[in-house]
Amino acid sequence: MADYLPVMLNCEDRLCIVIGGGNVAERKVHSLLKSSACVRVISPKLTEGLEELHHEAQIEWIQRDYSHGDLYGGFLAYAATDRQVVNEAICHEAHSQGILVNVVNDSDAGNFISPSVLRRGRLTLTVSTSGAGPLVAAEICSRLEDEFGEEYELYLEFLWRIRKTIKEQVTQPDIRQRLLKRLQRLDVLDQLRNGTFQEWDTERIHSWIANNQEE
User: Fold this and answer.
1) DSSP run (H or E) holding 20
2) Is the dihedral of CA 12, 123, 150, 200 positive or negative?
3) Whole-number Å distance between alpha carbons of 135 and 107
4) How far apart are CA 69 and CA 90, in angstroms?
5) Which DSSP category does 186 fall into?
6) What pTM, to 2 d.p., does this model score?
7) DSSP for 58-77?
8) 3 state DSSP class of 195
9) Which DSSP string do the residues of 132-188 spell out, in sequence order?
10) Neighbouring-strand partners of residue 40
């Protein structure tokens, strides 16, 4: 079994190709769209969900079977057909062109696998069993939903906004680090959970930064 390197790929505006039009392909397409990828689907038929995405111009659809050369210009590809010989051909072409490829029913054939994912705004939690038990990974990810609730999306937006302001306004590294540590100790997450949090406007942010620079 491969020892995988966990990474986060930036697929924004990159061509990502999904070969296949079934339910598994649809799940891969949704993940790619969440990453702002340019998605091309190659398949004679599509699920209703994929047809709707095509109708809304969210994906490009080439309505035919895979043909050698279809991966040209791609950044990443999913081989998601129900025919092993086709998936193998897709994998071979991807390897020959240096394109990242995942074979959905054979984790060892490609050069990357997709973990189970939980998203809370800027927070992304992933769980992988390195292909040994995808359903186990999905179950663990489901358990994490309760521990990392919707409040984390608001919390991280709050942190991002103030961190951005600190980095723009404070040039001294020691003061900046002090502010970031104090920001982390605020009980904003608890306030979000119990419904007592009040949004910080620009004036309050600037005031907090000014009043928390001293040791």
Assistant:
1) none
2) negative
3) 14
4) 9
5) S
6) 0.82
7) SSEEE-S---TTTTTT-SEE
8) coil
9) S-HHHHHHHHHHHHHHS-THHHHHHHHHHHHHHHHHHH---HHHHHHHHHHHHHS-H
10) 17, 60
Alpha carbon distance 61, 35 (integer Å): 18
The whole-angstrom separation of Cα 16 and Cα 24 is 15
d(CA 195, CA 188): 10
Q: Are 120 and 113 in contact (CB under 8 A)?
A: no
- With both helix axes pointing from N to C terminus, report the angle between 173-185 and 151-169 in degrees, rounded to the nearest 10: 160
19-49 residues labelled b (16+ CB within 10 A) or e (exposed): bbbbebbbbbbebbbebebbbbbbbeebbee
Q: Contact, 166 vs 209, CB < 8 A?
A: yes
Using DSSP bridges, classify how beta strands 116-120 and 100-103 pair: parallel, antiparallel or unpaired.
unpaired
The torsion defined by the Cα of 101, 83, 59 and 96, in degrees rounded to 10, comes to 30
- Quick one: CA dihedral 49, 54, 59, 60, positive or negative? positive
- The pLDDT tens digits along the chain (215 residues) read 678 888 999 999 999 999 999 999 999 999 999 999 999 999 999 999 999 999 999 999 999 999 999 999 999 999 999 999 999 999 999 999 999 999 998 888 999 998 999 999 999 999 998 878 888 999 999 999 989 999 999 999 999 999 999 999 999 999 999 999 999 999 999 999 999 999 999 999 999 999 998 88
The SS3 assignment for 78 reads strand
- Report yes or no: 188 and 155 within 8 Å, Cβ to Cβ: yes
Q: Residue 18 in contact with residue 28, Cβ under 8 Å?
A: yes
The span from the CA of 9 to the CA of 177, in Å, is: 28
- 205's enclosing H/E stretch is helix 202-211
